[in-house]
Amino acid sequence: MKNSRHERNFLKTLERGLRVLGAFTPVKPNLSLTEIAQVLGDDPSTAYRFVYTLESLGYIGRDPQTRLYHVTPKIFALAISLVGPRNLKKVCLPYLERLRDRTGETAVLSVRDGAEIVIIEVVETPQTLAPRGWLGGRVPAYCSAMGKAILAHLPENELTQVLNSITLAPRTPKTITNRLQLMDDLAKTRQRGWSQNDEEFNLGVVSVGAPILSNDRVIAAICVDVPTARIADQRAIELLAHEVVAVTKEISGLGNYDLGG
User: Fold this and answer.
1) What ranges do the domains of the chain cover?
2) Using one digit for the tens of pLDDT, what is the confidence trace for 159-190?
3) Phi then psi for 65, rounded to 5 degrees?
4) What architecture is the 4-71 domain classified under in CATH?
5) CATH, domain range 77-252
6) Residue range 85-111: average pLDDT?
7) pLDDT, tens digit (0-9, with 9 covering 90-100), for 124-163
8) 256 pLDDT more than 60
9) DSSP readout, the chain?
């Protein structure tokens, strides 16, 4: 039996909102509004208010074709900011080390939080001339290899929401600031399976990235950062891309990840 203090302080609306989020599972990653209403034990019109709020805050999204709801990577980023992506980092670390050893370059792992990527693991090259990553660092998704690898694999409606929320500000003279050009670049990324950041965030640094997928949804990305002084030609970029894609495909093939613990 709940005491009066509990009744006075317990926010039932918050509890119900969290119950909606908790209804999404690896076994049932997509839910209809009717199913969400059943979880709440309420009518669809009331359930829609919870869904609308969570969707407006970016925690769930809806497929325009199936009209089913799903949680977004913002949930993963929230868990990461609270307790750290231990399992994802643990799984990826040996692959990052192998990628560093095979390419001789710094390997980086990140996840998306809104229109930015958050760096959650860095394995640095021992070479003296090297870009230096920073754990917890944030980079605009549109001008980073990992960001573009993730954006290219978002559902169309989710990508549109992200692009509508940002200004494509120039970070360097090479930053893509035209939306149509960015969309073309993302289409190219999607088609070939890897992304390229050609000095778009930092002059003198080229990055090649690829996505990590789970249940056909992009959850993270990996890249290698390389000083332009060590990039001889496009063939060198393609060789790096081959290594990055091989690693991300292996990780994607391992199964689901507990990003929060």
Assistant:
1) 4-71, 77-252
2) 998 999 899 999 999 999 999 999 999 999 99
3) -85, -55
4) Orthogonal Bundle (1.10)
5) 3.30.450.40
6) 88
7) 888 877 666 667 778 899 999 999 999 999 999 999 989 9
8) no
9) ---HHHHHH--HHHHHHHHHHHT--SSS--B-HHHHHHHHTS-HHHHHHHHHHHHHTTSEEE-TTT--EEE-HHHHHHHHHHH--HHHHHHHHHHHHHHHHHHSSEEEEEEEETTEEEEEEEE--SSSS-----TT-EEEGGGSHHHHHHHTTS-HHHHHHHHHT-----SSTT----HHHHHHHHHHHHHHT-EEEESSSSTTEEEEEEEEEETTEEEEEEEEEEEGGG--SHHHHHHHHHHHHHHHHHHHTT----TT-
- 90 pLDDT band, cuts 50/70/90, is confident
How wide is the angle at C-alpha 89 spanned by C-alphas 140 and 152, nearest 5°?
40
